[in-house]
Predict the structure.
Amino acid sequence: MTVEKNYTYIDREKSWLAFNARVLQEAADDTVPLLERLRFLGIFSNNLDEFFRVRFAAVRRLSLSGVTGEKLLGGITAQQLVKDITKIVIKQQNESLKVLGEIEKQLEKQNIIIVDEKQVTQTQEEYIKDFFIQKMSQELVTIILNDLAEFPLLVDNTGYLTVRLVMKNEDKPASVLDIVKKKKKEIRYALIEIPKSFNRFLVLPKKDNKQYVILLDDVIRLNLSSIFNIFDYESISVHMIKITRDAQLDIDSDMSKSMLEKIATSVKDRRIGEPVRFVYDQSIEKDTLNFFLTKMGIELTDSIIPGGKYHNRRDYMSFPDLGRQDLLYQQQDPLPVEGLSLDGSILNRIAKKDYLIHTPYQSYSYLIKFLREAALDPKVTSIKITLYRLAKNSQIISSLINAAKNGKKVTVQIELQARFDEASNINYAEVMQQEGIELIFGIKGLKVHSKICVIERIEKEKIKRYGFISTGNFNESTAKIYTDLTLFTCHQQILKDVNKIFEFFDVNYRIHRYKHLIVSPHYTRSKFNKLIDREIQNAQMGRPAYLNLKMNSLSDYPIIDKLYDASNAGVKVKLQVRGICSLIPGVKGMSENIEAISIVDNFLEHSRAYIFCNNDNPEVFISSADFMRRNLDGRVEVTCPIYDEDIKKAIIDTFDIGWRGNVKARIHSADLENKYKARTTNESIFRAQFETYNYFLDHNSEVLNTNCIVPEK
């Protein structure tokens, strides 16, 4: 293809929507187990909710400000981008409805039937009504709207049922004039909030070996007469709506308040953020739709999305498995790491060499074991760790509290502005404060996104450091489905650098120099530029030169320009970018030496690994940072070099496995079509995530075979 003038980047919002389309592709893929397809449909919907709360909200604010934002948005105006996004989303929503319909047909063939209120049998209706009366009715919030002085605040991303009651004429008209007036029936409007305390899906008793499921929405529809029995109405209709609000936090500048108080207040205020999306059942009556749009102050300039009967399809992520393991991916047990044991001392092992765990292929339990051992070890004096997103019942927090109770000095930098985890992190912060843990709440203007830990241990009357550096959050729940890399090390110089980062948290006007780590916001951009420049120079001198880069997102224009320069110099660039990719690969005269793929499969590709050829002496790094402006310039991020040759090889090998993938890999391109990577005629199927598991499984087998003792005959 030829490039038009200034056609250099893909808009990040459209590229993100293309990523979410890849998630929808998984839901549509009939080779994916049926219940997993429903899960992907839920992920697609949840992703879209967050997109509107964050990215679309930001573009909308820009468009309403009157600023075009073309330079910021890579050549498109904010006003046009709002229109384009709405058009793309409406198309994707329609596609998702078709996918859901197809999945439901396939489920029926498996004797799993999703019924609505009109399809239930008499026996099922009795079961549903009993459930409603005994359990659900007590928690139902129903609001009659006509006579309210102020319209109630609708909660962000909560499902609501709008109710339209056409009332009967109570009295016989006394005159012709009254007859004319009475022709227009009184209409009452009501709102029902779908309870969040229940699973969205009610499993009904089996019948004839068939499993029936009904949505709570339809449980409510079936019981409307019970809810509105005090009203004398002649007809009633119900339709679902959902509102999405701007999720930006406005942080109070009051110096008398603690950061904890400011964030807590801001999270509460988020409830009344500006509406950025209104989704409605497209079969709703026109007068009902107008009533709600008017009362909620939603204008036609906002993103108003017609949909189907049901919204909040993110709830399909928790669709009951119904005991049908045959309709789910087969669970693979996390593998052990060669040389590490969950029985013996993990610190003694790390003292001898570095180790890498690649979750979820390998067990995350090593990280918990590390912290629990440090909490009990009498020689350990301190633990320092950064926390960004945590599990609901976090074993990390439990281990740190245990350490504090054992007299260790525990310092935790917890990011209170981890989007949508603010409330959870505030709760954990309060618990840790009560246990005497020293908390650091970050740096003004910078999120702390790094994933680092260092402990200090007294050995031979000297301080020796142990620690770990990761690409992912310290969250044992997401570790089951996010691919991430965590390096355990006793490298004293690296850990001295980690300690300097904690000093920077404490005294952040002082900028440290680091001998080994690459730290944002001060050094990451310049260091990556130098590493790319070295590859350019090597290519120009006829030496081997390549860049193998794996990340979640690539949207920083200066870095993209640098990669274009590398391509033009002859550097071979391979990019594995799961999400946003604003770079356009394969363009003659601009990026012809760049290839870019995205892998979307059972696990979420989350690890960041950067491999630089260095004249066939590869330098390898793991990082918490993507190639995005916020990661390079607006956050505290840590990129760590890998020095152990075996670990280097494992990272290079697994990158190559990902690159060879020809089942779940899509090609990044300017047209955003998400075409699958093609297989040659003689090429066998190679599914990267399955093969990565097999790689570690085979490696463990080799180790076991090498170490086994064969008895003499």
In short: The CA atoms of residues 117 and 218 lie 5 Å apart. Residues 78-109 form the longest helix (32 residues). The radius of gyration is 28 Å. The mean pLDDT is 89.
